[in-house]
Amino acid sequence: MRRGRAKESFLALGFLAPSLIVFGLFAFYPIIRIFYWGLYQQNRLGTEMRWIGLSQYKDVLTGDDFLQGLYTTLWYVAYTVPAGLVLGVLLALAAHRRLKGIKVFHTIFSSTVATSVAVASVIWLVLINPTQGYFEVTWLQNPTHGIGGAIFGVSLSSIWQNLGLTFIIVLAGLQAVPDELMEAATIDGMSATRRFFTVTLPLLTPTLLFLVVVLTVFAFQGFAQIDILTSGGPAGSTETLVYKIFQHQAPSDLGVGSVMAVGLFLITFVVAFGQFTILERRVHYGR
Amino acid sequence: MAAEVEALAVDTVVLGGDTVIGTERPGHRARIWKNVAWYVFLGLLSLVVLFPIWMTLVRALSTPIAYINAGQPIRPVDIEWDVFQRAWTEGDLARHFAISGVVTAIITGAQVITSVLAAYAFAFLWFPFKRAVFALFMATLMLPIEVTLLVNAVTIRNLGWLDSLQGLTAPFLASAFGVFLVRQGFLGIPQDLRDAAELDGLGHLGFLRKVAIPVTKPIVASFTLVAFLAAWNQYTWPRVVTTQQDWETVQIALKGLAARNIDQLNIGFAAAIIAAVPILILLLAFQKHLVRGLTAGAVKG
Question: What predicted TM-score, i.e. pTM, was given to this entire model?
Answer without folding.
Answer: 0.88
